[in-house]
Design goal:
It is a single chain. By secondary structure, this protein is an all-alpha fold. It is built from three helices and no strands. It starts with a helix and ends with a helix. The relative contact order is 0.07.
C-alpha cells in the first residue's frame, strides 16, 4: 500500500462511528495476535531439531 493510499484510508477511518471503530480495532487486534501465536521461533525450532539430529 502506498503512503498516499494509507493516508486516504486514515481519512476514511475518521468518518467511522464509535461502534465501527471498535469493530475495526477488534479486527486489527485479531490480525496482530494471529502473527504472534507461534510458540517457538524458527531459530528455536532449528535449535531443538539439532538436539535430536
Amino acid at each position: 500500500m502506498s503512503q498516499q493510499q494509507f493516508e486516504a484510508m486514515r481519512a476514511q477511518i475518521k468518518k467511522l462511528t464509535p461502534q465501527q471503530l471498535r469493530m475495526l480495532k477488534g479486527a486489527i487486534n485479531n490480525e496482530l495476535e494471529g502473527e504472534n501465536q507461534s510458540l517457538v521461533t524458527n531459530e528455536e525450532l532449528q535449535l531443538i531439531s539439532s538436539l535430536f539430529a
